[in-house]
Amino acid sequence: EQAVVRGIAHDISEAKLTVYRVPDTPGVAASLFEPLADAGVTIDMIVQNVSQEGSTDISFTVPLAMLDVAEEVTKTVAEDVNAGGVSTDREIAKVSIVGIGMKTESGIASRMFRILADHDINIQMISTSPIRISCVIAEDRVSEAVSALHAGLELDGEALQ
Amino acid sequence: EQAVVRGIAHDISEAKLTVYRVPDTPGVAASLFEPLADAGVTIDMIVQNVSQEGSTDISFTVPLAMLDVAEEVTKTVAEDVNAGGVSTDREIAKVSIVGIGMKTESGIASRMFRILADHDINIQMISTSPIRISCVIAEDRVSEAVSALHAGLELDGEALQ
Ligand SMILES: C[C@@H](O)[C@H](N)C(=O)O
Ligand SMILES: C[C@@H](O)[C@H](N)C(=O)O
Question: Which of its termini does chain B have fewer beta carbons within 10 Å around, N or C?
Answer without folding.
Answer: C
